[in-house]
Automatic annotation (TrEMBL):
GO terms for cellular component: ribonucleoprotein complex; ribosome. The keyword Signal does not apply. The gene is rpmJ. Pfam families: Ribosomal_L36 (PF00444). Keywords: Ribonucleoprotein, Ribosomal protein. It comes from Quadrisphaera granulorum. GO terms for biological process: translation. SUPFAM superfamilies: Ribosomal protein L36 (SSF57840). Belongs to the bacterial ribosomal protein bL36 family. This is Large ribosomal subunit protein bL36. It comes from the Bacteria.
Amino acid sequence: MKVRSSLRSLARQPGSKVVRRRGHLYVINKLNPRFKARQG
């Protein structure tokens, strides 16, 4: 998982969503599970 200051570049991948859990922002991708990221 990557820790990024800006999730917008990773969230442009097809199938990815930005999800807020426990005060952190995550990018999860069901189509391509390599694209995971956390912010905060």
